[in-house]
Input
Amino acid sequence: MSKQHLGHTARKRFGQNFLHDPYIIDQIVSAINPQKGQNVVEIGPGLGAITEPVCELIDKLTVVELDRDLAQRLRTHPFIASKLNIVEQDALKFDFSELFSEENPLRVFGNLPYNISTPLMFHLFSFAHKVQDMHFMLQKEVVNRLAASPGNKNYGRLSVMAQYHCQIMPVIHVPPGAFNPPPKVDSAVVRLIPHKVRPVAVKSEEVLNRVCAQAFNQRRKTIRNSLKESVSEAQLLSLDINPELRAENLSLAQFGQIADLAFSVQE
Ligand code: SAM
Output
């Protein structure tokens, strides 16, 4: 298949793989299930593959698109332009709290550019408290990482932080042929529902994130070594956590305990 899609040349640097399989698009729209009056935002609308059917169901949709040409095409779209609030910006830098409303929690969806999907997830987690749900097309491997449990090879900082913020539900598997150009990897749509009450209470999310980064950046080391800048061996033992363990063996609850101890030490 060519890199041309509906008269646009796909730009690799913007992670452009356009959906063209009507069956998959239909399944995604059904999974999102947008309703009139809801506060909905799409990241990376591109040529409108999901945007158009969503606009058939609701009256207003905010879209965040970095590619100037695609944003311009949407501005002049014959059918849906009047329903769109077009934000021509980098979603990684966009302050999603600008879209918060008192009455309506935000619903977020997108077939995300794979080259920035992990940092984008971390950026979105910082707004999760005001978000009703998120539906994302991601590399299948990233969905596996989001949902991984301790002991699994995919378990990492993304798993811990995602599960701290959200309930994770894989929805559909999507083969490369559903896109133009087809990506080299399999994809999947995942639903993330931010917890109303977090499964673990921590004193500082920032410290939790830092402790996870330290532990997983040196994932082959024991936590005695990888976490020595945050907590001592004696402190790990005081929590009844074996210092010989590796990051991949620690549960979210244990990361929470370590983060709280590191927070108290830092205070
Ligand atoms: N939604 C369309 C579809 O499903 O066919 C396009 C999906 S394509 C995988 C990713 C989209 O995200 C492209 O439109 C691309 O221009 C846009 N994009 C890439 N980087 C972005 C960023 N940093 N902020 C906002 N949009 C971005």
